[in-house]
Amino acid sequence: MALKRENGAEQPYIPAGIFKIRLPFIHYRWEISECLQAILMCATCLGAIPVLQDVLGVPYEVAWSMVIINGFFYNMHSLLGDPVVPGWITPAIPLVTAFLTLSEQGPDRTQTMIALQLMVGLIFLFMGITGLASKIIGAIPDAIKAGILVGAGFSAIMGEFKEGGRAGLYPTTVIIGSLIAYFLLFSLLFKRMKAKNKLWYMVGNFGMLPAIIIAIIIGPLSGELPPPNLVLGSIIKIPEFGAIWNTLSPFSIGFPGIGKFISVIPTAIAVYIIAFGDFVSSEQLLRTADEVRQDEKIDFNANRSNIVSAIRNLVQAFICPYPSLCGPLWAAVTAAVAERYKDGRKSMDSIFSGVGTFRWSTFICVALVPVASFVQPILPAALSLTLIVQGFVCCQIGLSMIHSDSERGLAGVMASVLAIKGATWGLAVGVILYILINGTFKNPEPAKNAANA
Asked: For residue 13, is it within any domain?
């Protein structure tokens, strides 16, 4: 049985410097709802397989093995005290893949990927160790933060609905699944239904899972996706460590040269700018949850989150370079966990019991052959639903941070430029506009804010 938490205190942990070690079943309880969600939500994790095959040219079995390894490292966040569900640096995927295609597929492209992931990891590490992460998050004006978040939301939605996007390839599945996910996660009507009816309350506890189930049904019925194919011959997929090491590790194919590291610097900076939005999202999501739940003190530390993300990127660059990179937040699922967390301690004992259960469960599920084979046909749709929900969450949080007409206009322009031209352009435009409009790079005083509203 997990250790008990006193009312208003932090969840029990083992202190280790900046880290707070928490083990499932010992420092937090196992949550059935998050475990069940993970069984099918792991389809999004497995959605990296086509990206790995296309970008790095690895066969399906090797790509699947890489997903399992990546899934194991996800657990570092809840293990070391970061109260979020981590994920990819999702909005950066188009930027990264476009950059990698400039190199020839094979060892040259893989070395470019290794150099990029190492550089991203070093930036995370520098920001975390120096303490600049927390200082930057606190110093950057809310309108700039909002522009980053809304821009990330625009990018996620635009990527799905652009020509050739998944919403066009699987319109019925994606649109109906997205509407159901929005209704279950964000609808005020559904919240009232949950309060009055135990059945709807139980459905709501499963977050995005019902939307994924609907996608599994609608995809084959609409003819957009093949039906699930349950494979029962074996139970657990053992990762092909040898093949990964021989084809992807710099210890086998050679380390990138200095020129490679120099060439990836602009892209690495842009990726961190995008990832910075995840730290802002994490802070806001957990702050709103903490305000509702007075029985638990949630300690979110941006420096710690940066360091954990750095460790994941640096280690994987050496053994399993990953084009999706290792980001600090899966916004859609963290939002779903936070919403259920707000229902009270009986619903979810601790924020760590929710995020920890979910991530350990997805790691187990991506390695289970029956589960992976069953969800394989809906991998593109599951990834699309996640991105569309993430777009909603980013816009919702970003817009809630701004309160004056000038801030709203600035954030909107910055978000549009970021979504169309990329993170570097978006940030540059936002900073210049903010200084031109406010004459400073500080948040306006409350009285001035109210006067402009």
From this structure: no
